[in-house]
Amino acid sequence: MKSRRLLTILFVSVVALTATRCSNDEGITFSMTDVSSRISGFSNAKTGPGAELTLNGSQLGNVQRIFIGNEVILARNFISHTESAITFNVPTTVGVYTDGTLTNVLVAFSGSERAFTKIEVVPLQAVSSFTPYAAAAGETVTMLGVNFDLVTGVKLGDVSATIVSQTPTVLKFTMPTGAPTGKITLLGEAGSSSSANDLVSCAASPASTDCAAALNLNGNLEDGSGDDFTNWGKWNGGGFMTATTLPGEYYRGSRALKVVRDGSLASGQWRIQFVSDPVATEVGASYTVYVWARASAAGGAFRVSLNPDTGYYGADAAVTTEWQRFTFVVPGDRIQNANTRFVLDLNGNNTAVTNFFIDDIKLIKN
Asked: Mind listing the pLDDT tens digit for each residue in 290-303?
């Protein structure tokens, strides 16, 4: 009796162990078929976190997932998938090595078929920001990021740019003639990587607002220390306004204005005011103020006004949770002084509890 109970316990334990091993390790099954011969190689001998990589071979149509080290890329996240090639982005969390160590790659097909190979995973260049946001041919563009010492080339579309200087964290290049508006692509031995935002080519997109000369200073809000912004003042509600450098809280560059609206202020848009230095203005001319903004929650609003006060108060603009460029047109009859301050009144709908994120403020003459 005791012998039968012991055999039963051993049987259950073996079944449990087998089930655990099969669910946790794609490569270990009792009916696994090794089809590694289907893999002919990769588009690059080396790759890096976030890089676009292509696996080449044959009969790849029913691949379900690819493991690089302990990180997995599911078929639904492949960029492209054919019988002869699978293109995907390497997970940003994959481990990197600088000593030539190879990382295991497991290709899991439907059913019991598995293929095994290796690839060298090294650091990859990555862009955090660049300035200016728009450039004409011949202008210098400065990029901030990491691993720029690994960069071997810069391209905009199919047009190559000349690198002026590069360090591990700063790279400068000359805007090439004929470049289109689009992402900046950095080339390196581990593959290519691109900027999150487009660099506007003023030759290709001459009507772009980004290519118009700004009359105000420090419109991108990058200059300043602590919670202060060079060329801008906090006239009311200064304690509600701070600088932010958190990703997602700035639109471009690496710094923006954060407005904490907690509903504690009385009504009146003017109770929180962010004000430009005086700008030289032509009496009777019309101007447009462009502002990128988003909110942590819907419900709040802001407007543009002038100082000295000439009776212009732009209509309240409702701020959504997505980045949006707002446009305020100041009619010429309201420009009555040779120097004018342009004011963001940020307490519209004062009862709404939400944070505003303000970036890239631009004033142009119409």
From this structure: 999 999 999 999 99
**Facing residues of 65 across strands?**
74, 108
224-256 pLDDT per residue, tens: 999 999 999 999 999 999 999 998 899 988 899
In this structure, CATH architecture of domain 32-121: Sandwich (2.60)
Residue ranges of the chain assigned to CATH 2.60.40.10: 32-121, 126-208
CATH 2.60.120.260 spans which residues of the chain? 232-365
Three-state DSSP class for 331?
coil
Distance, in Å, from the CA atom of 27 to the CA atom of 229, rounded to the nearest integer, reads 56
Whether pTM > 0.90 for this model: the answer is no
How distant, in Å, are the alpha carbons of 1, 49, 336, 340, 347 from that of 312? 96, 51, 11, 12, 17
Residue-wise burial string across 73-95, b where 16 or more C-beta atoms lie within 10 A, e elsewhere: beeeebeebeeeebebbbbeebe
Which CATH architecture does the domain made up of 126-208 adopt? Sandwich (2.60)
Q: First CA to last CA across the chain, in angstroms?
A: 97
